Structures are given as C-alpha cells and as structure tokens.
C-alpha cells in the first residue's frame, strides 16, 4: 500500500468524525436517508449508483458516502420496520415465508432444490444463520486483495456487528463430539479460518438480536447518501459511440407503485454504476441491460449492447446435507456457533431448538413417528404420545437439533438464464449438484463425520439410544426437502443419501466471475463506469460462511474506489 493511500485513509477518518462524532448520531433504525422509492424524483444525479442494498452494497455505500454522493436502490423493504422479526428465533420462519413482503424470495433450481434469495435492506445478513468467519488465506491470494487493507476492512465490520457466541449445553456437546470424531485441534474462539474445530463469530448479540449489513449504514455520511426501498432496477442505461467503449450512464428503476424513475451519473468521468445485486441479481440485470450471451438476449428481443457469453456461467451452490437428531433432554435455541473444518473439504455446523412453520413440524413429526412404529421399542412410554399425536413431538420448536455438512469448493458448476424480461421474477438457475464425483465423496465423508459426532460419548445426553444412524438417515429421506426422486437405497447408501436429499446452504456464487466478466478491479470487462461488487464475482465461497468476506469486500472496494477517484489508479502489491 502506498503512502498516498494511508494519507487518504486518514482523511476519510477526519470526514467521518466531522459528521458523526465518536457517538455516531445516526442510529438504526432512524436513518433519515432511507426512503420509499415512490418519494424519489423522476430524474436525479449521483456520483455512484449502487444496485442492491445488501451484504456488500451497504458497506460499499457507507464508505463511498464519506467523500461522494451515493444512491442505493434496494428492491426489498427495511429490516427495522419490525425490529424483532430478523432475530434468532425467527430464522426458519423467515426463510419459509412466501408472502410478497417477505425478506426472502423463494425459487426452485432446475435441479429440483428449494432455495431463496434475499430482498431486504441488509441482504442475506438479514435471513442467514448469523455465523461470522473470515475467508481462508488462499481465497484472498486468489483474488489478489491486499492483506493489510483486508484486515482493516474486516475490523471495520466487526466493530459494529460481530460478537462471540455463548456456547451452551447442546452446542458444546456436539463440538466435543466433533473433536472425538477427529476434527482436530480445538481452536477455541476465533474469526480466522483454521483447520479443526473452532467457535466462530455471530451477528446475534447476547439478547439474540440480529445485527446486519444494514447497521453498517450507521457509518454513512447522512448528507451524501440516499437509499430507496422497493426500488426495482429494470435496466442499466448505456452510452455507445463509434470508436469509444460502451459507458454506463445510469439506471431506470420502478417504485412500489409501478412508476418509473431515472437515476443518472454526474458528468464526472469517474462516476460509476455498481452492481451489488448478488449471484442471481447481478448477472440477471446485466442480461436485461443487454450484456450477456447474444443468442439468449435476442431470444427475448433485448438489444445487444455487448456479447458476453460468460455472463451467467460458472454459477455454483455448495451442497448441504443434514441429520435431524431428536433429543431426550431440553435443548437451547441456537444457530451456528462453531464449525468443524476438515482437511478433506467438508464443513460441519449445527443449530438446535429452532422453530419451523406448523406444516413443516407436522411433516417431521409424522415421519419420525412412522420410523419409530417400525421398531420393536416403538411402544415405549417415551414415544407413545408421539406416535398417537405426532405433532406433540415437535410442536413448532424442535426438541433436538440439525447437524449439517457443507461441501467446500465444489467442482460441479451450472449457469443462469433469463426466464423472462421481468426484473421482479427469478431467473432460471441450474447448479448441477454432485455432477463431479469428487464433490460426492466430500459429502459422504462429511456425513460420516457428522454421524460419528452424534454417536460420540460427548453427545450421548442429546440422542435417543433407540434411534440408529440408519433411522436418522431414513427420517431425512422421508421428509419433503426437495423435488428430487428418491432411490430405494437412500437410507443405506451415503452416496444415494447425498444425491437424493441435497439442499442449499444459500452460499451460491459466481455468474460474473473475476477474470471472466470483471477484472481485478471488479470493473466489467469492455465497459466503462460499471463495476460488480458482490458474490457473483467469486470463484469459490470464502471461508465456512461468506457473509464476513462479502461485507469486508464492500468496505475494501469502497476505499479503493475513493482512492482512485481522488488520487488516480491505485497501486497493488
């Protein structure tokens, strides 16, 4: 890093404290600059227009607003309207909410796997399981990011929203079970990515209240930023001239009443449109704007601005498979607090005492009762009531936990295509889960580790002795987890179990990959004044859970862009 950059960083601090002071007067949820899109003027001008107020968009906007005029266009609403809704106990109900105003927009991939994408200020940090863990060093080297600025940017995020979780009985027992299963060593509490078993960070505070990327807008200069909610961008506007590169000029967006607005860049040649709409939204919007595979664009009558066949390609979702383990002992409400990082490419995480919707609870309870009915001990007092009244086993909050396995760096990849020209609709997505046999072997090994942890001595107080490993597998096979067909041997073959019961962990990425669609500065290749800063640029999912790195990247690139604006092209080591 050059001397000029650190001088610039000191100026950013001065500007920040001039407007906020050390107490940061603008506190969520009282952001004066967050408005409904219907209140936007028909035409407006900004130095930076950020499409997507999500996990990357919020820290990016807050940083850029320290020295430039910024507009954020978020298609969803505010997480502050109902402050308790994003909290820990509502994790699954929020994901399963299919109402038009929900935080998550559901979709089903062409692979037959249910999925969701965020549509709320703060993005995925509003609906995820809250685990906070930094990327592995290899990821940072691969992306060419400067280590010193990366660490500074992580710390900027952590100061506001990251906490050390409480490790209560169920989580502690399972962590010890993983250590017994050989996921060593015990690394204690750390944000860093280290092989073995570790307690990571969380974005839930001691009162189980969620802190999100939207909270990072507390850092913003309130006089230089506007955030419009329920603002759906229809397309990016480009200027094309003979003998000149195509240049982004602004965007057209629609408010919640269906009225169109135009947000345009100022005449400063360093002004930019920045896509931060995520792994589905960013490639989808590029295509709707005329940048993508020309044959696909012509099919929908979209004017081709630039033929870029790699837009939408290299889309990857990390497969998830899990065990649901009923408990004879009370369990705490917990989301992911620790992780087992194996050396063969699998991550083991868990949650307990979570709430489902009543219909999901009934499905789980009935499947469990049916399995117990087949055992010789099904008439024991413990399960008599459950077999007669399956709903009583779980009510809406499970008495037990979910232990899941995530495949690291899957080789299998897919693609995204337009379904129609409506930006409100989800695109057509294919992930090709387990197309590569190496991915399947990682899953098999990971599920074996999870089973070993469940049947460890440390975890014995939280499992029923009459439930064998086969029974746990059979329970999952019988649940309506996806739309994929089941093999008769799914409960006997871990290969078939992985393929048949695969789910998402919502860490999908790619579609606008670094080096393919964007360069090392995250600028769209072949186009001026257009960048992409989000997970669509990733070639792999960073760390065990990507949110920490996505937020870091927003801060990191915000500083880099401002340095370039005021000091010229930034230098890299």
TrEMBL record:
Disulfide bridge partners, by residue number: 443-498
Molecular function terms, GO-annotated: flavin adenine dinucleotide binding; oxidoreductase activity, acting on CH-OH group of donors
One Pfam entry name: GMC_oxred_N
Gene3D superfamilies, per database record: 3.30.410.40, FAD/NAD(P)-binding domain
Cofactors demanded by this protein: FAD
Signal peptide: 1-25
Alphabetized UniProt keyword annotations: Disulfide bond, FAD, Flavoprotein, Signal
Organism superkingdom: Eukaryota
Occurrences of domain Glucose-methanol-choline oxidoreductase N-terminal (ranges): 278-292
Residues involved in FAD binding: 74-75, 120, 233, 506-507, 535, 546-547
Similarity-based family: Belongs to the GMC oxidoreductase family.
The protein, known as: Protein HOTHEAD
Taxonomic source organism: Gossypium hirsutum
Lineage: Eukaryota, Viridiplantae, Streptophyta, Embryophyta, Tracheophyta
Name of the gene: LOC107923256
